[in-house]
Design a protein that fits this description.
Largest sheet: 6 strands, parallel
Strand order of the largest sheet: 2-1-3-4-5-6
CATH architecture of the largest domain: Alpha-Beta Horseshoe
Helix content: 25-40%
Distance between the termini: 70 Å
Strand content: 15-25%
Shape: globular
CATH class of the largest domain: Alpha Beta
Structural class: alpha/beta
Number of domains: 3
Radius of gyration: 23 Å
Length: about 450
């Protein structure tokens, strides 16, 4: 009878009537945007009264933020969904996989709640339903922007800020477009408010992330350069890492972008521009929208002004109809461009994509494996050559990883492993001297 006449606010002050909500385990895979989604989901759940479990064993419900970009990644997702389902705990599957291939997820666990990449504001509802023994499917895209949402950070010194959702490309191999749809850029002012709040919360690195940063602003009358200028004008002791951008958008803003990087020390000298193939014929089959020249022009424009610029790229090996000559053009491209990082994937047909229908043009797994191994050897050789340029370098790093080793990043976003550190905390800045290198990182001592 008491609950009938007491106001809700008063009820909440009475310990006997306050219900504590169970713990939720949140696990995430994929790109930095997927990591940001998991942070926001955790923040929304925490705001709704749930506790985020620090160990999976102590949770009452499991939530997995999935990625579906590659076959190998999907296999990992399938394995994790099966394992979580066997635990007997309620399960929520979030992220790209349920949106891109709902049937696959439901075949693995027909009672799991589903949460799409643009439906995260319904996280508490989906979790609540699952805990109550019912199933809620929230895959419809929301009108809300994923910015200035409460979050629980995976790394307390790294702010992952989504600047847009979706993209403008129609790549024949990509399932991400199916999951995330068309471009929707977030407003510059909203992005800056998010960054300011994160800096006040102790962040030292800001990662600007989206499906494709290159097309940012094409739907709102601005562009990526203007956003970088705005973010770089903010006060404070921090660095900005620009996430992946497709080469097709670079020609129209290349000179302005080089100028921004040259003129603002807050920007890590780092670019992630996926080429995918060194063959223009294959790029046309992929519907990438750029040529090899587009990529090389961008690399050369930056390296002319900033020789130490770290360039990361992605390459797909064994794309349908890829010939040995096509592949040799890819090897030639890597030798000419000398990217510091090459993320290599063997082609795998993703359900719902155009290329998945080209069964008569498939490359054998044996050929794809052999090509992947050849490219990997070249990429490692190139990476080691690029890292050798830092031998003897002295300068400042930001410590952003602490585990078995202490690792920081220098101004070109090179990973620097620090030997024999004293008392060090995440976010600390320190001066170091590089004394050794590998194809993965630089090794340094504190000076």
């Amino acid at each position: 009878m008491l609950k009938r006449w007491l106001k809700p606010a008063i009820i909440e002050t009475i310990p006997m009537l306050r219900r504590s909500k169970p713990k939720v385990w949140v696990e995430a895979y994929g790109c930095s945007a997927s990591m940001a989604d998991s942070e926001m989901i955790s923040g929304l759940l925490k705001g709704a009264g749930y506790e985020i479990a620090s160990k999976q064993s102590e949770s009452a419900l499991n939530l997995i933020v999935t990625c579906s970009v590659k076959d190998t990644t999907e296999h990992r997702m399938v394995s994790r969904i099966k394992a979580m389902s066997k635990s007997g705990k309620p399960l929520v599957v979030a992220g790209c996989l349920p949106k891109a291939d709902r049937a696959k997820v439901e075949a693995l666990n027909s009672s799991a709640g589903l949460l799409g990449p643009h439906s995260i504001e319904k996280a508490a509802q989906v979790v609540g339903s699952a805990l109550a023994g019912s199933r809620l499917v929230a895959l419809e895209d929301s009108a809300a922007d994923k910015v200035n949402i409460p979050r629980v950070r995976l790394n307390p010194v790294v702010s992952i800020v989504e600047i847009a959702s979706g993209c403008m490309s129609e790549c024949t191999f990509c399932q991400t477009k199916i999951a995330k749809g068309w471009l929707r850029s977030y407003r510059v002012g909203d992005i800056m408010r998010q960054i300011k709040a994160d800096l006040e919360g102790g962040c030292k690195e800001v990662w600007l992330s989206s499906t494709d940063n290159g097309c940012y602003g094409k739907d709102t009358g601005t562009d990526l350069v203007e956003l970088l200028k705005a973010c770089g004008s903010l006060g404070g002791d921090f660095k900005i890492r620009l996430g992946m951008m497709n080469p097709m958008y670079m020609p129209g803003m290349l000179d302005r972008m080089v100028d921004v990087f040259c003129g603002n020390d807050k920007l890590f000298r780092f670019l992630h521009i996926p080429i995918e193939s060194g063959s223009d014929r294959v790029l046309r089959k992929m519907k990438r929208g750029h040529t090899v020249k587009t990529f090389l022009d961008a690399v050369q424009a930056f390296r002319r002004k900033i020789p130490e610029m770290t360039i990361s790229t992605d390459i797909i090996v064994g794309f349908p109809s890829e010939t040995e000559d096509d592949f040799k053009e890819t090897l030639d491209l890597v030798e000419r461009a000398e990217p510091d990082i090459v993320n290599i994937s063997r082609y795998g047909a993703r359900p719902g994509t155009e290329a998945a229908k080209w069964k008569g043009m498939r490359i054998s797994s044996q050929v794809a494996k052999e090509r992947s191994e050849r490219l990997s050897l070249l990429a490692k050789k190139t990476a080691k050559k690029r890292n050798s340029l830092w031998q003897g370098w002295q300068g400042e790093i930001i410590v952003d990883e602490m585990g078995k080793v202490v690792q920081g990043r220098n101004y070109a976003y090179k990973p620097v492993v620090v030997s024999s550190p004293c008392k060090v905390s995440l976010g600390d800045r320190m001066r170091v001297k590089v004394y050794d290198f590998s194809n993965f990182s630089l090794k340094a001592m504190i000076i």
